[in-house]
Design brief:
alpha+beta; 5-stranded mixed β-sheet; elongated; 7-stranded mixed β-sheet; 34 strands
C-alpha cells in the first residue's frame, strides 16, 4: 500500500515530521518499508511517498481513511471530513437501471449511481501525480477518479459506459455456461463456472472484482457512466485472480475483505470528484441491492483477562478511549469490570476478546509492556510413550549398523501394486488429489518402495552396500472409502556389513540370519520374543524359500525375507533383504513398565533332542507345541541346529532343539529329568510323525 504524506494529512490533523509518522506506524504493526521524497506539481510543495506493508487481515488499512484512523488513535489527532456528493432518498434512478444479484454468497451488496453529460479528458496534474506515486497509471479523468477514491476509501469502483449497456439491467451471477470473456487488456480469458460476472442482461461486461470488459469501457466518446461500488466474496475473487494470473488493485482489496457498508460512501465521494474534474449531472439517488445486511458484532472485554494476557494493569477508561478513536462503540460496566465493544463491519479482523486485547497493546505501545518472566511451576518432564519407544528403537537399529532414512509418503501405482505391505486384507490405494508428479500419485502401502529407491540411489553413486531403516506411516483405504494409516518400521540390508569391536575392519556378508537377527533384536526390545512365532509367508514380492511371516497371538506383526528375483530384475536392482513390522502393534504389546524378578536359586538342566522331518517343516511348530503343553518344569526351548545331507534322506532335514528344565524349590535329579524328557520326545514323535535322530 502506497500513500503520500500530504494526502494522508488531508484526512487527519497530524503535525509531526514524515520520519515520526513512519516510526509511529511501524511500531503499531503497519510497517513502513520505504519512504521517498517527491514534489507536488501545482503547489511545488515537498511530499513523501510511504510504502506500507499491510497484513492480510487488515483490509481496512488498504485505504488512506483506514490509515488516518490508525494515526488518530495513536496520536489523539482529530479526523477530517472530506467533501462528497451525498445521495438522497430518490427512486428515480430505478427507472433507468435495474439491479439483480443471483448469488448473495458471492456478492453481498451492489450499489450504483449514474453521471450524465461528462467531458472525458486527461486528469489534472495533481491527481495524476498522486496516482503515479502510488503505482497506478493515469488513463482519463473518470477512470482516474475511481482509482483515486479507491486509494482513499479502500473500496474498489468501476465505471461503465452506460450507452453501451443496451438492456440497462445489471445482473451479478456466476459464469456457468459462459466460457470466455475479453477483459480491458484485450486478452480473452477462459472462465470457470464459479467465476463471478457482471452482466448487462445476458451479456458479460466485467469480471467481478478483477477487471472490466472491452465492450463497456469508458472512452473519449463516453457521455454517461454507471458507477459501480460492490462487495464480493474474498475467496471467490482470490481464486479467479490467481487462476487467471490477473492481480489488480481491486482484486487485492477484495481478497482481503472490503466493508459492505462502505459502498455508498465511496460512490458519494467519487461522484463529487468526477463533477469537479469532468463536470456532469449525477443522479440524486443510488440504486442499491443489499439483500442481507451485515450486522456489527459485539464483543466483551474483561479487565481481568486484559491484565492477565498483557501482564500490566490497564484502566478500562484508557481502553475505551483507544477503541472510540478507532470508531468502535463501547459501553463500560464498572461493577463487573467489563467493556462491551461494538465492532463495525469494516473491522472484520476483530472476532474475539483476544483481538481486542491485541488492539489495546498495539495502540498503547508494545514498548510500554515491561519485560517479565512468567511464573511457572518446575516439574519433571513427561516424555510421550510413543516417542520414548521410537527413540529406543532408533538407538537399537543404529547400533545394528543401520542408517535412518526419511522418505516422502508418495509412491507410484506400480510399486503400490507390487508392495502391498501389512494390510490384512489388502487395502485399496489412497490417491493424491494434486500429485507433485505422475509417478507419485498414490500414498504408499509399504515402506519398502522408498528403501528400494534409497538402494538404487546408493548404487548409482558407486556404493557397495546399503543398510537402512525407515520409521514412518503407511496408508490404505477400505471398501467404504475410509482412509486408514498406521505406523511401521521397515529396513533393507544389502551388501557386506563392516564389523566393529574386536574384529574391526572385517566385513560380513548379509544373509537370512543377519536380517532375522535384527528383527529378533526388535522383538527383544519390546519384550515379545517369547510370544511371537515364525511361519511361511505368501507375499508375492518376497522369495518363497527365503522369507518368513511373523505373528503374535494370531495377529500378523510383520515379515522379513529376500526380495523376489523376478521383482528385483523388474526393478533393476540386486536382491536385498527386507523387513517390515507394524510399530503400532508393537507398541500395543510393549510393557508399560519393566518387571524384574530375583535370580533363580536352583540350576537349570538342559537336554537336547534331534528329529528328522520333511524339508518344508517349520521349526517353530515344535517350539509352539512344547510351550503350549503347560509343563511347569519346562522353562525354555529353542532350535539351535538344522542339518541337510547324508545320512539324512533327500527331501528330509534334521532339526536339533535344546530344552531347559528348572524347578523353583529344588535341584532336579537326572532320574526326574530323563523320564520327563523321554515322555516329551515320545509325544513329539507321535504328534508330528517325526523320526528321532540318535
Amino acid at each position: 500500500m502506497k500513500v503520500t504524506f500530504n494526502w494522508l494529512k488531508e484526512f487527519v490533523e497530524f503535525t509531526g515530521a514524515p520520519e515520526e509518522l513512519a516510526k509511529l506506524l511501524t511500531m503499531a504493526g503497519l510497517e513502513v518499508e520505504s519512504q521517498a521524497m517527491l514534489r507536488e506539481p501545482d503547489s511545488n510543495r515537498d511530499d513523501w511517498v510511504f510504502e506500507i506493508a499491510v497484513t492480510p487481515n487488515r483490509g481496512d488499512c488498504l485505504g488512506i481513511i483506514g490509515i488516518a484512523r490508525e494515526v488518530a488513535a495513536l496520536t489523539g489527532a482529530k479526523l477530517k471530513a472530506v467533501p462528497s456528493s451525498a445521495t438522497k432518498k430518490d427512486t428515480s434512478i430505478n427507472k433507468r437501471i435495474a439491479l439483480k444479484i443471483d448469488d448473495t454468497k458471492l456478492c453481498a451488496r451492489y450499489s450504483a449511481r449514474i453521471v450524465d453529460e461528462l467531458r472525458i479528458a486527461p486528469s489534472p496534474a495533481w491527481l495524476r501525480c498522486r496516482l503515479e506515486a502510488c503505482g497506478i497509471r493515469a488513463i482519463n479523468n473518470v477512470v482516474d477518479a475511481t482509482n483515486y477514491v479507491m486509494l482513499e476509501t479502500g473500496q474498489p469502483l468501476h465505471a461503465f459506459d452506460l450507452e453501451r449497456m443496451p438492456t440497462k439491467r445489471v445482473v451479478v451471477r456466476p459464469a456457468k455456461a459462459i466460457k470466455k470473456f475479453t477483459t480491458l487488456d484485450g486478452l480473452e480469458r477462459e472462465l470457470m463456472p464459479e467465476d463471478l460476472l457482471i452482466c448487462d442482461g445476458e451479456m458479460p461486461i466485467a469480471l467481478a472484482g478483477v477487471m472490466g470488459g472491452m465492450d463497456s469501457e469508458v472512452r473519449d466518446s463516453t457521455r454517461s457512466i454507471l458507477l459501480e461500488s460492490a462487495n464480493f466474496a474474498p475467496s471467490n475473487i482470490r481464486r479467479t485472480a490467481r487462476r487467471l494470473a490477473l492481480h489488480s488493485e481491486a482484486s487485492h482489496r477484495f481478497e482481503r475483505g472490503v466493508d459492505p457498508d462502505g459502498t455508498i460512501r465511496a460512490l458519494d465521494r467519487a461522484v463529487w470528484l468526477i463533477k469537479q474534474i469532468a463536470g456532469g449531472n449525477a443522479s440524486v439517488g443510488a440504486a442499491d441491492c443489499y439483500p442481507v445486511k451485515a450486522k456489527p458484532v459485539t464483543l466483551r472485554l474483561r479487565a481481568e483477562r486484559l491484565e492477565r494476557l498483557l501482564g500490566v494493569r490497564v484502566d478500562l477508561k484508557q481502553a475505551e478511549k483507544l477503541f472510540d478513536a478507532l470508531g468502535l462503540k463501547t459501553e463500560r460496566q464498572e461493577k463487573n469490570r467489563v467493556l462491551r465493544v461494538r465492532v463495525p463491519t469494516n473491522r472484520a479482523d476483530l472476532t474475539r476478546e483476544a483481538d481486542l486485547i491485541e488492539e489495546v497493546a498495539r495502540l498503547r505501545g508494545y514498548d510500554k509492556i515491561p519485560t517479565t518472566l512468567p511464573l511457572t511451576r518446575i516439574a519433571g518432564g513427561n516424555i510421550d510413550r510413543r516417542l520414548a519407544w521410537e527413540r529406543k528403537l532408533s538407538v537399537l537399529l543404529i547400533g545394528e549398523g543401520l542408517t535412518e532414512v526419511i522418505n516422502l509418503p508418495f509412491t507410484s501405482e506400480k510399486l503400490n501394486r507390487n508392495f502391498t505391505g501389512l494390510w490384512q486384507p489388502a487395502a485399496a490405494a489412497v490417491a493424491v488429489l494434486n500429485p507433485l508428479a505422475k509417478e507419485n500419485a498414490e500414498m504408499r502401502h509399504s515402506l519398502i518402495p522408498g528403501l528400494v529407491d534409497n538402494l538404487r540411489l546408493n548404487l548409482a553413486h558407486k556404493g557397495k552396500s546399503f543398510h537402512g531403516y525407515h520409521l514412518g506411516k503407511v496408508f490404505g483405504s477400505t471398501a467404504a472409502g475410509e482412509i486408514n494409516e498406521r505406523r511401521c518400521v521397515g529396513g533393507l540390508l544389502y551388501g557386506p556389513q563392516r564389523v566393529y569391536g574386536l574384529h574391526v575392519g572385517e566385513e560380513v556378508s548379509v544373509g537370512f540370519l543377519q536380517c532375522k537377527g535384527v528383527v529378533e533384536g526388535i522383538l527383544d526390545l519390546f519384550r515379545l520374543a517369547e510370544r511371537t512365532s515364525w511361519s511361511h509367508n505368501d507375499f508375492r514380492f518376497l522369495h518363497p524359500g527365503k522369507s518368513a511371516l511373523l505373528r503374535c497371538d494370531q495377529f500378523v506383526l510383520g515379515y522379513m525375507g529376500e526380495l523376489h528375483p523376478d521383482l528385483s530384475g523388474e526393478l533393476e536392482i540386486p536382491a536385498g533383504w527386507v523387513f517390515e513390522l507394524d510399530f503400532d502393534k508393537l507398541l500395543e504389546y510393549a510393557p508399560r513398565r519393566i518387571v524384574t524378578q530375583t535370580l533363580p536359586r536352583f540350576p537349570a538342566v538342559e537336554r537336547d533332542l534331534a528329529i528328522v522331518v520333511d524339508r518344508d517343516f517349520a521349526s517353530q511348530q515344535v517350539i509352539s507345541w512344547i510351550n503350549n503343553l503347560g509343563e511347569p518344569l519346562i522353562e525354555h526351548v529353542e532350535v539351535f541346529d538344522q542339518y541337510l545331507g547324508a545320512p539324512i534322506p533327500d527331501g528330509k532335514k534334521s532339526l536339533a532343539y535344546r530344552v531347559s528344565y528348572r524347578a523353583e524349590d529344588k535341584t532336579l535329579t537326572d532320574a526326574e529329568i530323563n523320564g520327563l524328557h523321554q515322555n516329551l520326545v515320545q509325544r513329539l514323535r507321535d504328534t508330528f510323525g517325526a523320526e528321532q535322530r540318535g
